[in-house]
Amino acid sequence: MSLYAVVDPATGQTVREYPTATDEQMQAALSAAEKAHREWSRGSTVVERAELLRKVAELHTERRDELAKIIQREMGKPLDQSLGEVDFSAAIYQYYADNAQKFLADEPIDLVEGEGTALIRRNSIGVLIGIMPWNYPYYQVARFAGPNLALGNTIVLKHAPQCPESAAALHQIFTDAGYPEGAYVNVYATNEQVADAIADPRVQGVSLTGSERAGAAVAEIAGRNLKKVVLELGGSDPFIVLSSDDLDATVKAAIEGRFENTGQACNAAKRFIVAEDLYDDFVGRFTAEVLATADGLAPLSSVAAADRLSEQVQQAIAEGATLVSEGDRKGAFFPPAVLTNVSRDSRTYREELFGPVATIYKVRSEDEAVELANDTPFGLGSYVFTTDPDQAYRVADSLEAGMVFVNAVGAEGVELPFGGVKRSGFGRELGKYGIDEFVNKKLIRVS
After folding, report:
1. Strands 184-187 and 154-158
2. Which residues are catalytic?
3. Candidates 1.10.10.10, 3.30.360.10, 3.40.50.410, 3.40.309.10; correct CATH number of 237-413?
4. H-run or E-run covering 35
5. What is the pLDDT of residues 326-363, one digit of tens each?
6. How far apart are CA 442 and CA 431, in angstroms?
């Protein structure tokens, strides 16, 4: 089977295969992107580039039903969530179309000594490689492509091998929006071809959303070739419950935080850390809700993904954890489950569980909750539920994470920066910070 193929996770059926790019096609893609940056980017205005992004947003909206069905077919995402992803992606492009001029305006600097003026002017840097994952095929691309095309960088995009149809649909949208050849190029590249492309002098930076292993490999190549890199990697986000005046609402938020996209989100709530006075009640209500999701749960993205999660769960059980689950594993369908009594010595304790499995821990104090939350290699997002505003800020300040959401899940927005620390990567996407990564902040000093 081809490296790039649509395999419906619900049926296991191979829908269509796509040919992998030849080395000649990769070279042509890089040349086209370099030419587009040299001619189109440097010859266009921010206003003109913003209007192209506005058209991209409109085309997402016009084609939302078709786009949603594609990713449902590719990676099993429920249709309502697929439609929501398309809408959010359109909103990202619209946001950068609306705000590009403000974000890229010259930034004056007050001189301490001397006469004249000084300012920072934000310029594009050139061709960027984007390496995107399968779990949010449109949204991840929008976070990367939106701000960088507004800035004037050009994009060579390698999507996940199981998302070739959505990758082609996106390429068509950018073409139909009026972008010149090379401004956005989709390539069905191998890992080896991408490694060579990162090292190519025509490429100035690379952004990857994916696994730790992939991030480390890309960062190594980028570092060796002095290329800027942004990495958004895994997460094992804590969901801390310290107090609640409506435990049912808190449990509902916990379910939403864990099971959106069948639990396949880097920033999903994965480790539930609960104060001991609420623990038993929370576990009972939460577990009942988890088991109730069994009938309507979508498949994981692939049989391989389900195999990996099963291995992690069985490892935790072998090392002393207690499992409560409902239903049987069938292909890519994985039964929802709750793990308790996971030992800190367990290998699973330090891993990311990418699917419909939650782990729950009991803590005796705020300090113990923070210590447990931070006892992970990851540092992407986090969630804090408390009725005490002072405690909320205190805990938020103490968490080793790029994002903290207090008394809310699903509160991400186009204007809010997304990214992490530790082994969750570095750099930020979305908001004004997302347009400030692959940019030459050029000082112009006039005497």
Report:
1. parallel
2. 232, 266
3. 3.40.309.10
4. helix 23-36
5. 888 999 999 999 999 999 999 999 999 999 999 999 99
6. 21
